[in-house]
Amino acid sequence: MKTSRREFIAAAAAAALLPKVASAEASGVRTGRLVRGRKINIACVGCGGKGADDVRQFSGENIVGLCDVDFARAQQTFAAHPKAKVFRDWREMLAALDDQIDAVVVSTPDHMHFPVALRAIEMGKHVYVQKPLTHTVEEARRLLLASRRHKVVTQMGNQGHSNESTRRMKEWLEAGAIGDVTEVTIWTNRPVWPQDKQLPGAQDVPATLDWNRWLGVAPWRPYNRAYMPFDWRGWWDYGSGAIGDMGCHTMDAAFWGLELGAPTHVSSEVIGGNEYSCPKGSVVTYKFPARGNRPPVTLTWYDGCCKPKRPGILPAGERMPGSGQIFIGSKGAIFCPGDYCDSAVILPESRRVSFVEPPKTLARVANGHYQNWLDGIRGVVDAPCSNFEHAVPLTEIALLGAVAVRSRTAFGWDKDALRCDNPAAQKFISKTYRMF
Ligand SMILES: NC(=O)c1ccc[n+]([C@@H]2O[C@H](COP(=O)([O-])OP(=O)(O)OC[C@H]3O[C@@H](n4cnc5c(N)ncnc54)[C@H](O)[C@@H]3O)[C@@H](O)[C@H]2O)c1
Q1: What is the pLDDT of residues 29-53, one digit of tens each?
Q2: Is the pLDDT of residue 266 over 90?
Q3: Omega before 321 within 30 of 0, i.e. cis
Q4: How far is the CA of 61 from the centre of ligand 1 (A)?
Q5: Considering the domain boundaries, does residue 35 fall inside one?
């Protein structure tokens, strides 16, 4: 991976933020260890919102550390785990509990996934990181390299990847259910949070919140309720808009089922928004090249106020859902209403009736996405299904879409060099980091 001077400085600044762990320095590269014959010791960063659910899902293990910048928001989770040590600063938690933890769960807003996950991985901790894995494409690639170097067990929180329906979809596509697929259209009802806003003014910081630590590596800005909780998704400094929020869920079936790899070209049409706030709506078009004997694919994404035309192959009377996807092939189409492929249907009816369900060639995920990560840490499965070898290229696709929206440009993409052929887009492939 080539790194420009600017990117190198950004990464060095990020690394400088991170506390050094003496034993890690002395023993060289720390690697993840399998845990057998006992519960897994887990520390969690971000305990309100989705983090509350994530901690609950792992509560059959030993929750030894809980970190949140807002003790009011984390209160219920703290109360459910009275034996866990609580922290406001993840750096302090990782340093203090280093020899007591096997694994770390990262459920903060997106802009903090990378610094927390990178530090945990460098300490040889297994990581479960919410989707999208990171805030920039460069961060995703760095986490992949770090996870390989430190041999840790990884899982991104795109739980739909563990679903039966995602596996069935891939088997259908591989069995030629609709022939050669050349087009995929995906649309979402997100954002369901404010976007296309002007920067708000300052408000008093709530007494329970450490605003400086919430901002973390993001640029300094006065507190306003408009940013958090949850609504950070609509601000470029913390989230990546609708495509960043949902892309790792709803593009997964196409990415995996069609083995899309990386796009070579990405373009956007954008309505509203500004340099701080994500837009009212966007359309992103990706070009994926031919793979083996599979033809090139054009994947088109719609969000917010931008809606696709009703596909002509949809039967009369079939409602056009708020979110969905449709795969168009040489012999028919697969229509999936909703965020996943649970209700996937082959069209037209004649094709559906003549199609013979293929054998289940792909392994099924026993007991769901969370248990799948724990099974990886115990060595019960070789690797969780959305480990970083899968999650990173998928995240990169979603975030490249966000780059096209944010820069309002089109660009060619060279995945090996991590470079856009358009400087206006390239500047969003990485970012700079605030010391806090
Ligand atoms: N997999 C899914 O279906 C799913 C669903 C919702 C959210 N998510 C993901 O979960 C993550 C969190 O989203 P959310 O909606 O819960 O956000 P949120 O703002 O509602 O909650 C985030 C929690 O993290 C805490 N936090 C923020 N910064 C922190 C820091 N630096 N250190 C420690 N704690 C910090 C907050 O105080 C809060 O308790 C995001 O990455 C989001 O994309 C995934």
Answers
A1: 999 999 999 999 999 999 999 999 9
A2: yes
A3: no
A4: 21
A5: yes
